[in-house]
Amino acid sequence: MPPARFLWSAAGLLCVASAAALVAARRLRISPEERERRRRELINREGRLADGAITDIDGTVIFYTYVVRGVEYSATQDISGISASLPADPAGLPGPVTLKYLPRNPANSIVVCESWSGLRIR
After folding, report:
1. pLDDT for residue 2
2. How far is CA 93 from CA 22, 58, 96, 113, in A?
3. Half-sphere exposure of 69 (CA within 13 A, CB side)
4. Is residue 15 part of a domain?
5. Which domain holds residue 24?
6. Does the pTM of the predicted model rise above 0.90?
7. Are both 24 and 39 inside the same structural domain?
8. How far apart are the first and last CA of the chain?
9. CA 15/CA 91 separation, integer angstroms
């Protein structure tokens, strides 16, 4: 008969493996659109403001640049899911913009989300 310590260790290992499998399965069920919405929501909630410039708009993608702590970033944001936040004529959008970025990862940024917009519409 195996020692009780071995049985408890095996049971603990089984619980940890089950929990990890449950978390992995749950992450797989989240659609890419939902994952992007959650990312925008996180940046809106925890992000810091910075000034930037929209350099181009191509369909539903905004291209912009900004500087954080002396490092220049070039980024894009797909706005297909939140295009209602944009004006009907996006031709006036290129130029200055306010954006939000995560302090622990300044490359992770947004220009617009469901509940906030840094667009300076002329």
Report:
1. 59
2. 44, 11, 8, 16
3. 8
4. yes
5. 4-30
6. no
7. no
8. 79
9. 56
Q: What is the pLDDT of residues 63-101, one digit of tens each?
A: 999 999 999 999 999 988 887 667 666 667 788 999 999
Any long-range contacts for 91-94 (C-beta under 8 Å, 24+ apart)?
A: 92/121, 92/122, 93/54, 93/57, 93/62, 93/119, 93/121, 94/53, 94/54, 94/55, 94/56, 94/57
pLDDT at 85: 64
Q: Is residue 102 part of a domain?
A: yes
Task: Provide the percentage of residues in the chain whose pLDDT is more than 70.
Answer: 86
* Mean pLDDT value of segment 35-49: 95
For residue 111, how many other CB atoms are within 10 A of its CB?
24
Residue pair 39/108 in contact (Cβ under 8 Å)? The answer is yes
49 inside domain? yes
| Residues 95, 64 share a domain | yes
What per-residue confidence (pLDDT) applies to 23? 76
Whether 121 maps to a domain, the answer reads: no
| Whether residue 87 is found in the same domain as residue 46 | yes
